[in-house]
Design goal:
The chain is of the alpha/beta class. The protein has 5 helices and 9 strands.
């Protein structure tokens, strides 16, 4: 029986390691991530990724009515901005285009740190940005519920506009700040 359990475990681990997107190492396929976007700021002005060049950017997708994940993710971005000595900013992109205006998204993000901005836009604009970053999101509405689910990664973009790293929402702020120091 022990051999059978070990065999099943070995097969499971082999399949897990061979599955796309399930690699156990830290390397990610960044060539599939396109950091381009065209979204709106709190004043309704068009903002693109080129407008953010010259500084490090921590970028994440979420929504302002999120009870647990988004506040932790955005707070983590704010803590990273506090500990880095680099010229940096945070960008929070709301995927809830029905309830979050660009002004709401900005008020939410800047409430965590003065160097953070919120962006949003039409469903098509947000969907295009999410697709470029490889982010999934879905809004489900029923008579009694309104649910938003989304990928919750933090993207670190260098001053040259190139993606440096993708972090989990709860990555230690010092680890994220350290990635800024090692960028060339």
């Amino acid at each position: 029986m022990n051999k059978a359990i070990l065999f099943v475990l070995a097969v499971f681990l082999a399949l897990l390691c061979a599955s796309p997107g399930m690699a156990l190492d830290k390397e990610l396929p960044f060539e599939n991530i396109n950091i381009e976007f065209e979204l709106l700021d709190r004043a309704g002005n068009l903002v693109t990724e080129t407008d953010l060049r010259g500084k490090y950017v921590l970028l994440a997708f979420g929504f302002t009515r999120c009870a647990h994940i988004c506040p932790m993710m955005v707070a983590n971005m704010a803590l990273t901005l506090n500990v880095t000595g680099k010229k940096a900013m945070g960008v929070f992109i709301s995927v809830d285009t029905e309830r979050d205006t660009p002004a709401n998204a900005h008020a939410y993000a800047s409430g965590f740190h003065e160097s953070m901005m919120g962006l949003s836009g039409s469903h098509q604009q947000v969907r295009a940005a999410a697709n470029n970053f490889g982010i999934s999101f879905v809004v489900t509405k029923s008579h009694k519920a309104y649910t938003v689910e989304h990928t919750s990664d933090i993207f670190l973009i260098g001053p040259d506009g190139k993606l440096i790293e993708v972090f989990a929402l709860n990555a230690p702020p010092l680890e994220i700040a350290e990635a800024m120091k090692t960028w060339q």
